[in-house]
From TrEMBL:
<dbReference type="InterPro" id="IPR026635">
    <property type="entry name" value="Efm4/METTL10"/>
</dbReference>
<keyword id="KW-0963">Cytoplasm</keyword>
<protein>
    <recommendedName>
        <fullName>Protein-lysine N-methyltransferase MEUPH1_LOCUS17760</fullName>
        <ecNumber>2.1.1.-</ecNumber>
    </recommendedName>
</protein>
<comment type="similarity">
    <text>Belongs to the class I-like SAM-binding methyltransferase superfamily. EFM4 family.</text>
</comment>
<dbReference type="GO" id="GO:0016279">
    <property type="term" value="F:protein-lysine N-methyltransferase activity"/>
</dbReference>
<dbReference type="GO" id="GO:0032259">
    <property type="term" value="P:methylation"/>
</dbReference>
<dbReference type="GO" id="GO:0005737">
    <property type="term" value="C:cytoplasm"/>
</dbReference>
<keyword id="KW-0808">Transferase</keyword>
<dbReference type="InterPro" id="IPR025714">
    <property type="entry name" value="Methyltranfer_dom"/>
</dbReference>
<dbReference type="InterPro" id="IPR029063">
    <property type="entry name" value="SAM-dependent_MTases_sf"/>
</dbReference>
<feature type="domain" description="Methyltransferase">
    <location>
        <begin position="49"/>
        <end position="181"/>
    </location>
</feature>
<keyword id="KW-0949">S-adenosyl-L-methionine</keyword>
<keyword id="KW-0489">Methyltransferase</keyword>
<comment type="function">
    <text>S-adenosyl-L-methionine-dependent protein-lysine N-methyltransferase that methylates elongation factor 1-alpha.</text>
</comment>
<dbReference type="Pfam" id="PF13847">
    <property type="entry name" value="Methyltransf_31"/>
</dbReference>
Length: 207
């Protein structure tokens, strides 16, 4: 087990204790606002029904999935390689009396994705960023893309939010297997005369 996995387990063990002791579900990755924008994008730009299957890759505490469940989405899945993260997510889902979210401990890069069902929509909020920071990033990014494609049904949708990759960089990496459907506006900044965005958020459709 590498150091990064151990660190994530440590993080989610702390959040699990905080939830048990104080009812605090923990942080929402990239903040609550981007989660709301993702949900709005799903409702406005994804050609799916509330009964279609949705997967959150690296779901963490599953707060995004619980929000979708409360809006009526009924076929929700979350996977994460961290056992404490899945335990925390299950505790939150149970506490909120949500019955239509399936959570599983699953390593997206090493476990066999053929054991999972296929999906109409796959979500990623930060998982690709974590993979990209690894020493053998290129190989793992290629495996990640292959798995996303294999998990999506024909014409399936892929919504990704990244803090490490710009919009053109994401398009360059995924453009051979996906087409851009919608780009979510994100906060911008200016430095040295150049303008950029703090996050890149894009909805793709499988070619």
């Amino acid at each position: 087990m590498n150091a990064k996995i151990v660190n994530w387990n440590d993080t989610y063990n702390v959040e699990l204790d905080n939830f048990k002791n104080f009812g605090d579900p923990g942080a929402e990755w990239f903040g609550h606002a981007i989660g709301l924008k993702m949900i709005k994008c799903i409702q406005s730009n994804c050609k799916i029904s509330q009964e279609d299957s949705v997967l959150d890759v690296g779901c963490g505490n599953a707060l995004l999935l619980t929000q979708l469940a409360k809006l009526g989405f009924s076929n929700l899945y979350g996977i994460d390689y961290s056992a404490p993260a899945v335990k925390l997510a299950n505790s939150i889902v149970k506490d909120q009396n949500i019955e239509n979210i399936t959570l599983k401990e699953f390593d997206f890069l090493t476990d066999d994705v053929k054991t999972l069902p296929t999906f109409s929509l796959v979500l990623d909020k930060g998982t690709y960023d974590v993979i990209s920071m690894d020493d053998d990033s290129k190989e793992k990014r290629n495996r990640y893309k292959e798995n996303i494609v294999n998990l999506l049904q024909p014409n399936g949708m892929f919504l990704i939010v990244s803090c490490n990759w710009t919009q053109p960089e994401l398009n360059a990496q995924f453009g051979d297997v996906f087409q851009v459907v919608h780009t979510i506006p994100t906060p911008s900044y200016q430095f040295g005369g150049a303008v950029g965005n703090t996050l890149s958020a894009t909805l793709y459709q499988k070619l």
